[in-house]
Each structure stands twice: as C-alpha cells, then as structure tokens.
UniProtKB/TrEMBL annotation:
Pfam families in the record: p450
Keyword Oxidoreductase belongs to the record: yes
Organism of this sequence: Cannabis sativa (Hemp)
Coiled-coil spans in chain: none
InterPro entries the record matches: Cyt_P450, Cyt_P450_E_grp-I, Cyt_P450_sf
Top-rank lineage group of the source organism: Eukaryota
Keyword Oxidoreductase: yes
Listed cofactors: heme
Protein name: Cytochrome P450
Family: Belongs to the cytochrome P450 family.
Keywords from the named record: Heme, Iron, Metal-binding, Monooxygenase, Oxidoreductase
Length: 205
C-alpha cells in the first residue's frame, strides 16, 4: 500500500512522498491521515449517525475533520509550490514534466481547490486497486514459476539487461517505449485482473 501510494503521488504531483521509508515527517503525517480518512469514509456506510456527529463535530467525524485538514494543508502546499516554480523558473524542463498536476498547470487551470479534487480523486481511485492487483500478481507469480521465468526473460530481453546487478540502474532502462512492448507481462497482469478483479463489486446510488 505504501509503495503504491508513493507511485501514485509521483504520477499525480511529480514529487517524492517516500511513505515507505518515512524520510519526510510531513509525508508520513499525510500518509497516515490519508489512510485514516479513507477508513473513516468507508465507516460512514454503517454509521447511521455520522451526519449528526459531523454537525456536532464529535467522535469519528471530529477526527475526520482533523485528518482532512492535514491532507488539505499538505496537498495545497505542493500545489502552490509547483505553481510558483512553473511561473518563476526559466528552466523549460519544468514545463515538460509528465505528472498530472504539471499537465493541468500547463493549461489554464490553476484553481488549487479544483486541482486538489482532481488529483486526490486519481490517488483514491488508483491506490487500493493498484496495490491489490500487485499483491495478487506477485502471489500468482510465486505459484507459477514458469510464468515468472517468462516475465523475467522478457524484461531482460527488451530492457537489454542480461545481468541485473543494481535495481536502480535496471529501472532506468525501463522507458515507456520498452514497457509498452512487454506483451507477456501485460498478459500476465491482465490474467491476474481476470482471476482477482480489483473492484469485483461496486455500489451505486
């Protein structure tokens, strides 16, 4: 879950959250608040008094308000910092960032509240589903060594890395073009989703 949150944060904001190692105290507080707020939101489905608690600012809803403030403060700080960097910097490389926030800022949208809503929606929708799929994928690879070997061989062949001595160096070889050519890996992940759907049931109102 932490690894996926870090990845989603990189995609959404283009910054390193590092909830895995907890090197950032702000990032650590955000990660805890994010998970707690998600759990509290789910609890509202069974807590028939949550609206009253929210109105009176008591119990779980009082805690929810505190967690939400931590999340908002952290996200708004990132958004404002990115806006200032992109407006003041003459470094054109900042304008080529592929994270979601930078793409919005390259357009005309710079409303912090709108940006927060869009980006947090992406993180909320992608975090648990991605983490669950990765977990089942690794589990299935362990159960089927022959498939694991084929995935590894495809990675090595397309990345032109016969010997993998350092993970960081290997990761550098995995460009978007290389990843798109990994048809066997794609098939294995797709089969994982068929057997263990990330969202097997949805609730609609």
């Amino acid at each position: 879950m932490k690894a996926t949150l870090d990845s989603m944060f990189q995609v959404a904001f283009g910054v390193e959250l590092d909830s895995m190692c907890g090197s950032s105290e702000e990032g650590k507080k955000f990660s805890i608040a994010f998970d707690d707020a998600s759990a509290m939101t789910l609890f509202r489905y069974v807590d028939i008094l949550w609206k009253i608690k929210k109105f009176l600012n008591i119990g779980s809803e009082a805690s929810m308000k505190k967690k939400t403030k931590i999340i908002n403060d952290f996200v708004f700080k990132i958004i404002h910092t990115k806006i200032e960097l992109m407006e003041s910097s003459k470094d054109k490389s900042l304008m080529k960032r592929e994270d979601i926030l930078s793409r919005f800022l390259k357009g005309t949208e710079n409303d912090p509240i709108y940006l927060r809503d869009v980006i947090l929606s992406v993180i909320i929708a992608g975090k648990d589903t991605t983490a669950t799929t990765f977990s089942w994928f690794i589990y299935l690879l362990c159960k089927h060594p022959s498939v694991q070997d084929k995935v590894v061989n495809e990675l090595r062949e397309l990345a032109n890395a016969k010997k993998i001595a350092n993970f960081a160096d290997f990761a550098e070889t995995l460009s978007e073009e290389v990843v798109e050519r990994m048809q066997y890996l794609h098939a294995a992940i797709t089969e994982t989703l068929r057997i263990y759907p990330a969202v097997p049931v949805t609730a609609t109102q």
